[in-house]
Amino acid sequence: MTPKKFTPYIPPEANVKELTVKSILLGCLFGVIFGAATVYLALKAGLTVSASIPIAVIAITLGRRFFKTTILENNIIQTTGSAGESIAAGVAFTLPGFLFLSSPDSAEYFNYLTILVLAIVGGLLGTLLMVPLRRALIVNEHETLPYPEGTACGDVLKAGEKGGDFARTAFLGLGVSIVYAILQKVLHVIAEIPYYTTKQVNKFFPSAKVAGEITPEYLGVGYIIGPRIAGVLVAGGVLSWMVFNPLLATLVPADTIAAQLVKLGYLSSLAAEGGKGNWNPATHQFADYATAIYYAYIRQIGAGAVAAGGIITLIKTIPTIVKSVGSSIKSIKNNSGAEGDTSLRTERDLSMKWVGIGSLALILLISILPQIPGSGFAQKLLIGVLVVLFGALFVTVSSRIVGLIGSSNNPISGMTIATVMGTSLIFLSVGWTGKAFEPLVLVVGGMICIAAANAGATSQDLKSGYIVGATPRNQQIALFIGAIVSSIVIGLTVKFLDTPTSEMAKEGIKHAIGTDKYPGPQATLLSTLIKGILTGDLDWQYIFVGVFIAIVMELCGIKALSFAVGVYLPLATTLPIFIGGAIKGLVDMGKKKEESAIEEELSKGSLFATGLVAGGAVAGVLIAFLSGSKSGENFLNSVSLEHGLTGTLSENGYFLLGILFFAAMGYILYKVASKKTVVE
Q1: Which of 289, 312, 272, 303 is nearest to 551 (CA)?
Q2: What is the pLDDT of residues 588-599, one digit of tens each?
Q3: What single-letter DSSP state applies at residue 369?
């Protein structure tokens, strides 16, 4: 296929500053900030938002005012920074699964060095395997693969050259969210999770629970994903907490629920107090039936639904996968050797020999590094080969899919589930069964998830670069640097967030990830699948209920994966996200015309919501770091006003105060979003 003549914004013959020290340093800084925020959001809600456009907007504003950056330097800034967000998502979605595998020894692999190595290897693989695909997908199919976020980011960069302070609204959202987070997470003027639960003895509707974690980041995420997806998410939560909970509370005796919690490890024994739902062995009752039932049954149903939703999403993209692999191989053959033959700056990629050497080097690293699970060189070598083979497939698939429908619709979960299941079946075929091999499967799935996520983000970055006239080789180098630097901080963030509070420690909880504070839904799901396949010890009846819920949703024309995530997550997570989506729906109703992609990405509402997400998530990470030390925890306890407010207002009055603050923030978002866009 002969590409149409395309003229980039900066001509190939122009000599413009691009890969400079300041652009790399600024990009790494943004990669660290958005990477940490993404880890926080992914562990709490199982969701992420794209960082490229927010970074580009901030880079334009700060770059023009303080650093005198060129458009190509701004492109390098957003390219370097976006690597942090994509790698953070892959890490948070998979690697905490080490904590939930069958053997307690598997948790030892959830250490900083292992997370760092896997993050770097997965990130480098995603970028490395995109080098031969750039010409095939970005250049040759420029007209057929729009890469929506990449195109919008390129337009942002071009618009930034023409003037306009895009970042003012985003910074306003950032400021509002930080003030709100201080009031909520430091001073505790605002309740974190207001809730209402019907009593177990209620004969009409027992143990139904409505709750909302009323944070700025959830409100912002809901606005960004829109009313449709937010509505499907909360619908899954309504099914779990307002249908399954009252039904099971009516039908299942408390002792049976407690026995199931013991089986799953959420309660040490029927004679022990505490556990999920706060079991009382003397009275044979739970203080919180809704939570007990959720952990005993509904999470497994949700896991089955998410697995099925991911696989269904992947199956629906099989025609795209087949076309993608075939077209990419053909294009690579047609363009073989072209990388070193061109003198045009905008066509210079890293040499293919570095792709080959790099891939072999990654396999060798996986084979010899002690941080990688495995009992010998042969086992680790097989892991390395599987990572590169699955990586070559799913990097190609990820790139083409995000080219068609955007990064937010990329079925990374489906690819990761397929990788985990495929690896598990390969292990079974060679007789590798049992608890000892579970971490090996998770390593393969984790690195493929990271690689596929980074490949999608890399593709969008290369599209932006193609539009503005960047040098591909410089972008690829920037992506490698961004992947390494961001991974260093991502590992630290994950470990800090996993540190239990003193209250958790008193209850015998060793890891905050997996608790209500940081559910880590995708990682929990992957560990459940791996254990089920390799050991056979899984409550398949609940998994299959979830599978058929996903099938029902698909038959009804609803995206099963979004609904399934809602079934799995607490309603406290999905309800505030839905409120953000509802505000977006109200704003859209007041608009007279459809917005273009660039207008939507640069609308005041989207920029303010991005600020809410970034500010809330970064504040959450910083407060988690602060509470990780004894002195920091003592300080937070000393400034908390929660006890005084609940004593004065009562618990319900305290909850109402928090809801009023959240409503005020939602009103500010609505008013800001109702104004005209800032596109000039």
Answers
A1: 312
A2: 887 766 555 555
A3: -
